[in-house]
Amino acid sequence: MTYINNLKYRYLFKSYIRGQYGLKLKICSTQLRELTNKAMESSLERVFIGTGHLTEKELIVEEIDECPNISENPETLFKADPLCIYTVYKKAESLNKTIVLLVHTHPESPEPSLLDIRNMKTWLIPWLIISSLTGESKVWMCRDGKPIEIPIELNNC
After folding, report:
1. Which of 41, 134, 136, 149 is the most exposed place for a label (fewest CB within 10 A)?
2. Taking a C-beta distance cutoff of 8 angstroms, is the pair 135, 108 a contact?
3. Which domains does the chain have, with CATH numbers?
4. pLDDT tens digits along 113-131
């Protein structure tokens, strides 16, 4: 069952990237507020993994886990602890969910850096970037090698 779901998610993500479907991120307003507060209380880049479900039109974030930033320069770069990512993945898999979002903070604007864009081509999921200065947030995904902004819909959860 999990393998079939992973194939389904991979197909949907690739369809989004090719522009075949519109994509909207749905996240609880309280989750986004908590992420924003955590971003603004730290001068270091922080990284979170969002799990949930994907439909043909919506990406639904149900749970968010923080992973340690193991970068040698955490003030300006992030590198999520691989063991944490694996643990989050296995937990999601056991609940018939998948990883649907990567979240990280930037010390300035919520625009993707060149390194982010390169890594978005590897991680074919949306990236939520939150400014630790202003609290502004934007969701990005690569399409044809270029970042495109994805709309956010806040839910009252």
Report:
1. 41
2. no
3. 2-155 (3.40.140.10)
4. 999 999 998 888 899 999 9
